[in-house]
Amino acid sequence: MPRGPQPSDDNKLIGYFKNKDSEHYKAYEDAVEEFHPYIPFFTTFDSKVAKKLTLKLNEIDFYKAFMEEPVTIPDKPNSEEEIINFVEVHKRSTLRKLKPESMYETWEEDVDGIHIVAFAEEADTDGYEFLETLKAVAQDNTDNPDLSIIWIDPDDFPLLVPYWEKTFNIDLSAP
Fold first, then answer.
1. 47 shares a domain with 23
2. Name one GO cellular component term (predicted).
3. Are 68 and 106 in the same domain?
4. Residue after which a domain boundary falls, among 41, 70, 90
5. Residue numbers of the domain that contains 44
6. Are strands 95-97 and 147-152 parallel, antiparallel or unpaired?
7. Which residues contact 144 (CB under 8 A, 6 or more apart)?
8. Tens-place pLDDT, residues 19-46
9. Domain membership flag for residue 7
10. Is 97 exposed, middle or buried (0-12, 13-18, 19+ CB in 10 A)?
């Protein structure tokens, strides 16, 4: 049984703190402002919820996109600077979905190595199966900084389909 949220196409942070007046919560809140709106963050002050998430007091879990298990930020409690530094180092997921609101951030990354651009319609059976394969590859290679997979669902960008077909010399209507 998963200990936290189901894997999604977004990175996210989840922290457990005593209350809103806690100095550790305030450091967390200040740190996450640096990444808003690209990385959503969540907080619980409820010990029962934290127990279900296996979070200890003042602990923060970082969930990478499409990954099943989080990475806990070490050395709790963390300062604002420690949280920011950790997220900066870990924020690039191996597999990223191209979205209208973050497409420029996704494309501008300067990463040497292997770049894969994959087109798959999530609503299509073949596309879904291909996406599951991409997720497995990403999970197996999450520690490989040289691998970057960008998933594009053509349904999200209908006006760009002709451009992509010409640029990549592919037919996106074919399986």
1. yes
2. sarcoplasmic reticulum lumen
3. no
4. 90
5. 12-90
6. parallel
7. 94, 113
8. 999 999 999 999 999 988 888 999 999 9
9. no
10. buried
Hey, what's the torsion of the CAs at 102, 65, 138, 164, to 10 degrees? -20
Q: What is the pLDDT of residues 114-170, one digit of tens each?
A: 888 999 998 889 989 999 999 999 989 988 888 889 999 999 999 999 999 999 999
Residue carrying the six token digits 């292997």: 114
Residue 27 lies inside a defined structural domain of this protein: yes
Q: Answer yes or no: do 83 and 106 share one domain.
A: no
Could you tell me if 44 and 50 are in contact, meaning their C-beta atoms sit under 8 angstroms apart? yes
